[in-house]
Amino acid sequence: MVTIQGIGRLSQEPKMDYMPNGTARTVLNMALTSGFGDKKKTTWARAVCFGTAAEILNERVSKGQRLSFTAEFQEVQTYEKRDGGTGVSVELKILAFEFIEKSQGGNQEPEEF
C-alpha cells in the first residue's frame, strides 16, 4: 500500500451516494499543486471516502476549500491536456483528513478525522 499526505483544493462540490450495503461514499475532485512560479505543477485527484467520514466530508466541505489528508493510491491515469501536453490524474482512498479552513457556517478550529 502506497500512502501520501497532502493538501488539496476542491475543484467541485462533493458528491455523496450510498453503496448497496448502505455505506456512505463521498467523492471529492481536488487539485494538488506543487512547486511555484514556472515550476508550478497541478495534479488532479479523484478522492473517495467511506462511512461516517464520508458523511462528515459531504456536510462540511465545499468547492474551493482546502483539505489536509492522508490517502492510499488506487490508480494513476494520464490524459491529453487542452494544450496538447500530457496530464496526470490520480485516484485516492482517503484514510484520514483534517479541515484546515473554515467551512461556511462551520467551525474555525482545525478538526482531525
Summarize the structure.
This protein has 113 residues and is mainly beta. It has one domain: OB fold (Dihydrolipoamide Acetyltransferase, E2P) (Beta Barrel), CATH 2.40.50. Helix content is 9%, strand content 57%.
Characterize the structure shown:
By secondary structure, the protein is mainly β. The protein has a single domain, classed as Beta Barrel (OB fold (Dihydrolipoamide Acetyltransferase, E2P)), CATH 2.40.50. Helix content is 9%, strand content 57%. It is built from 1 helix and 7 strands; from the N terminus they run ββββαβββ. The protein has one helix spanning 51-60; strands at residues 3-10, 15-18, 24-34, 41-50, 66-80, 86-99, 111-112. A 5-stranded mixed β-barrel has the order 1-3-4-6-5.
Order of helices and strands: EEEEHEEE
What profile does the largest beta sheet have? 5 strands, mixed, barrel
**Shape estimate:** globular
What's the name of the CATH homologous superfamily?
Nucleic acid-binding proteins
By DSSP (H or I, 4+ residues per run), the number of helices equals 1
Give the radius of gyration.
Answer: 15 Å
Class per helix and strand makeup: mainly beta
The helix fraction, in percent, is under 10%
With strands numbered from the N-terminus, the spatial order across the biggest sheet is: 1-3-4-6-5
CATH topology-level fold name: OB fold (Dihydrolipoamide Acetyltransferase, E2P)
